[in-house]
Amino acid sequence: MAAIKIPANNRNIANEIVDRPKNKILFRVAKFNPRVDTHTKYVDYDIEYDHWNTVLDALLTIKHNLDPSLALRYSCRQAACGSCGMIINGKPALACFTKINELGSDLVKIEPMSNFPILRDLAVDFTQMFDAHKKLKPYIIRSDSEISSSDETKEFIQDPSSVEKYIQFANCIKCGLCNSACPTMATDSLFFGPQALTQAYRYLTDSRDQGKNTRLKIIDDRHGIWRCHFAGSCSKVCPKGVDPAMGIQFLRGYLLGFRD
Q1: Among the listed residues 233, 249, 160, 134, the one whose alpha carbon sits nearest the alpha carbon of residue 201
Q2: CB atoms within 10 A of CB 133
Q3: What's the CA gap between 136 and 201, in Å, rounded?
Q4: Of 153, 156, 196, nearest to 176 (Cα)?
Q5: Greatest alpha-carbon span in the chain
Q6: CATH number of the domain at 22-124, please?
Q7: What pLDDT is attached to residue 4?
Q8: Distance CA 98, CA 239 (A)
Q9: Quick one: residue 222, left, alpha or beta (phi over 0 = left, psi -120 to 50 = alpha)?
Q10: Which one of 182, 218, 230, 251 is least enclosed by Cβ atoms within 10 Å?
């Protein structure tokens, strides 16, 4: 087999990439195991990184090469699954969606998301958020009369204008960043949270759904929609452009009779 020759100009580019000096940065990572620890400690790691690396890339470098005991959750690495939420330099964010170079800091402080029980290190327990999400009935509710007994999988068609009313809120990936940023979640562990309330609005405005009264009764609760103080921090941290604060205000409009 003939050898493949790389043009001289391409060889120069390849050599430049290989020889380019890596940047160095300090990662300060929270470590806490509730089974054995009484308080959180912070461990410093000096690592090298390339300009395209994300915070998740750096954490995996630490786990693979420096500290195999580091616990974190991740999966898709492309801001689709919502697994790698954490506090990065004081702000809730997805580690796979945050480039190190964009932080503009020589120190990157990594902590687990606030308002969630810590399982270990950077991994938190989503049980309360998922329970609240399920309590709001996140699915299309139809009366039995709308579905023929001979065709239980009937499709309900929507026009584009109907989809536009809720499509933003359907982009939620359940990463928990909005709940982590919510000040009410910090004071009321039974609060439904912006994630669940936003999904209630998503289905409430779906033209195929007939569960409005059912959901409004659920959110009209002391730990429901009235506990939201409209801080708006939930909307600032959403990686998918969802505006939970706006959805919650629209929900209040239904309860107050301003919306049908």
Answers
A1: 249
A2: 21
A3: 10
A4: 196
A5: 78
A6: 3.10.20.30
A7: 45
A8: 10
A9: alpha
A10: 230
Per-residue pLDDT tens over the stretch 14-33: 455 455 567 899 999 999 99
Q: What pLDDT does 7 receive?
A: 52
Q: Rounded to whole angstroms, what are the CA distances from 56 to 77, 79, 97, 254?
A: 8, 11, 8, 41
Q: Is residue 27 classed as helix, strand or coil in its secondary structure?
A: strand
The pLDDT assigned to 243 comes to 97
Q: Decide which of 3.60.15.10, 2.60.40.10, 1.10.20.10, 1.10.1060.10 is the CATH code for 127-141+158-255.
A: 1.10.1060.10
pLDDT at res. 2? 46
Report CA 114 to chain centroid distance, whole Å: 13
Q: Where are the alpha helices (DSSP H) in the chain?
A: 8-19, 55-61, 127-135, 160-164, 177-181, 183-187, 194-204, 212-219, 233-237, 244-255
Which amino acid appears at position 137 of this protein?
Answer: K
Domain locations along the chain:
22-124, 127-141+158-255
Instruction: Give the span between the Cα atoms of 176 and 198, in whole angstroms.
Output: 12
CA–CA distance, 78 with 80 (Å, rounded to integer): 6
For 177-209, the pLDDT digits (tens) are 999 999 999 999 899 999 999 999 999 999 999
Sign of CA dihedral 10, 12, 15, 21: negative
pLDDT over 90 for what percent of the chain?
Answer: 83
Do the beta carbons of residue 236 and residue 182 sit within 8 Å? Answer: no
Q: How far apart are CA 113 and CA 179, in angstroms?
A: 9
Residue type, 159: D
